[in-house]
Amino acid sequence: MPRKFIISAVLIAVVFGVAGLAAWLLIRSAQKPGLTADPTPPPLVETVMLSPESMDQEFVGYGNVRPKRAATLSAEVADEVIELVGDLREGTAVRTGQVLVRIDDRRYRQLLLQAQAQAAVAQAQIDELVVRRANLEALRSLVRIEVEITATEERRLIDLFEDEEANKRELDIARLAHRRVLRSLQELDNELALLEPTTQRLQASLRVEQAVAELAAISVEDCSIRAPFDGVIETLHVEIGDKVRVGSLIVRVVDTSVVEVPIRLAASTRPHVGPGSACRISVDTADGSQWNGVVARISPVVDQESRTFFAYVEVDNTRQEIPLAPGTFVRATVRGPRLVNVLSVPRDAIVDGGVFRYEGGVARRVAVVVSHRLHDTAVVEGDLVPGDLVITTNLDRLADGSAVRVESDAPTVSSEKDERSEEHASP
Questions:
Q1: Cross-strand partners of 354
Q2: What pTM, to 2 d.p., does this model score?
Q3: 201 and 126: one domain?
């Protein structure tokens, strides 16, 4: 019995000793720095402080530059190109009315001479009828006098014949004379009556020949292709010896002194854009060239699908240091009314119609209404006041009431070590 008791006591002592050693090791390991799992810190965020500001509204659109005036001249006659006047080529400057291309006009000049001759013949015939009318009217006046005389003589002989102082033969001769004069008057009246339709026919022929002559003269003039305005040759479509038809392209002239840029703007900007709105034109080049323009007109309708409308910006190249070339793809920034004492935030800070305001280590969601969008900035209205801090980063990790840190709240590495040292030093 004593031996078994001794063995049991030894075993119990060994078990307690092993248990105590294990407990001591666990305590030592729990107190070692770095082995305790730190809780996940709140996200570190950046903020912007709201302050009232004034800013110009700017509306951006894109478009291709085109000349305000351009004309593609085509042939109005059919014949051969016989001359390119001067050193005519693409890029040549031209003046209003300057002859650029000549087409053979000999055939049209012959048609003009022929029509003029026919018109002269018709006019001469009309003039002849005028003289003939005058002569016939004079002769008719004389015949009327004869009619009166013969009528008087006939009545006199009738009275004498009734008084038996004249015989039947004398009366018949008087009657025949009167009838003959009446017939002559009738013939003159008929001839004068026929002069009117003849004159009208000749006058119609004259007008036809004059019209033919006028058309021939126009054709002769159309054989000389002239510049419609001061400009530059953009494209020359013909060479000497080419046969052209009516409608064949001859030359295109453009006026680059004033160019136009049609740009699309959002329908919401329409109340703020109109004729006279200033505009800044730029291109994506290394030198950063810019041009000043002005909105000259706007489209009267809004496109239903894109909800945009066209604004037409004009640039006066005569006032620019470097002319803006047609065909260039540009960015146009139209200046709108100035906004005064407004609050703005980065557009990326707005999530689902609200922003997160920093309040003493907590993110609070505030609903806002965007009144204007200016590039990457949004002018907002809502429960915000100057001095509020609006969170701009880590927004996908935030909800209303989330704990957050800003740079001023984030502990330094040395302070974290000091905190751990203090934990180990405490009993």
A1: 351, 367
A2: 0.61
A3: yes
